[in-house]
UniProtKB/TrEMBL annotation:
Pfam families per the UniProt record, alphabetical: HAD_2
The UniProt record lists the keyword Hydrolase: yes
GO cellular component, one term: cytosol
Pathway terms, separated by semicolons: Organic acid metabolism; glycolate biosynthesis; glycolate from 2-phosphoglycolate: step 1/1
Name listed for the protein in its UniProt record: Phosphoglycolate phosphatase
One MF term in the entry's GO annotations: phosphoglycolate phosphatase activity
Binding site for Mg(2+): 13, 15, 171
């Protein structure tokens, strides 16, 4: 009987999958709103759109502004966020144990995020990940970003793992779309950020889980496909 094993490599989305960064973004938006004499935005309003990026968060914080005016606020949003990054954010429950289990099993793991790479790199030392994370690909690291498969394929190549031997874990539909296009098994992280109308069951992830604790067990990871047949 074949022993159940962890996959050889795992790639993770960052915000909404490993890191509960919503409190940092609420503080960032709050500073911007206060500077303009506006009331703060609540966590309940901002949290569901964190995985959608800075423009979606600005739309939640400044719903009355036209798109072009909100787009002009993106540089300020990123600058203010950089100044307080990690101050309020925490790992999702179970993430530390999951990563420890992967490390103990000699699984190589990395991060593929749409967050700008320079911001993502600031987070690594806050959690002691700088020596543990095998690869980091940001949203501006390559010509394409998720849901395009390029970042996932680049990350797999960087750590020397075939895409079909690597699992991608993310909390947004574009994560699952990117994984499928890259030929990677996927895990939909339901503990992350979603809009009320999102339907993770329709994303067709290989595995759908409610909490990161489950991924401390090798049996909860997707079964890897057979190697591609070479012509």
């Amino acid at each position: 009987m074949t022993a159940v094993r962890f996959p050889p490599a795992v790639l993770f989305d960052l915000d909404g999958t490993l890191l509960d960064s919503a409190p940092d973004f609420v503080a960032t938006a709050g500073d911007m709103l206060a500077a303009r004499g506006r009331p703060p935005v609540s966590l309940e309003v901002l949290r569901p759109v964190v995985s959608k990026g800075s423009r979606a968060m600005l739309a939640a914080a400044f719903p009355d502004l036209p798109d072009d005016q909100r787009d002009a606020l993106v540089p300020e949003f990123l600058q203010r966020y950089e100044a307080l990054i990690g101050r309020h954010a925490t790992l999702f429950d179970g993430v530390a144990g999951m990563l420890a289990a992967l490390d103990a099993a000699d699984v190589r793991w990395g991060i593929v995020t749409n967050k700008p790479e320079y911001l993502a790199r600031l987070i690594l030392p806050q959690h002691g990940w700088q020596a543990r994370c095998a690869v980091l690909v940001g949203g501006d690291s390559l010509p394409e970003r998720k849901p395009h498969p390029m970042p996932l394929l680049h990350a797999a190549q960087a750590i020397g793992i075939a895409p079909w031997q690597c699992v991608y874990v993310g909390d947004d539909e574009r994560d699952i779309i990117a994984a499928r296009a890259a030929g990677m098994p996927s895990v939909a992280a339901l503990w992350g950020y979603r809009l009320a109308e999102d339907d993770p069951a329709s994303w067709n992830a290989d595995v759908v889980l409610d909490d990161a604790h489950s991924l401390q067990q090798a049996s909860r990871w997707p079964t890897l496909p057979a190697p591609p047949v070479k012509n």
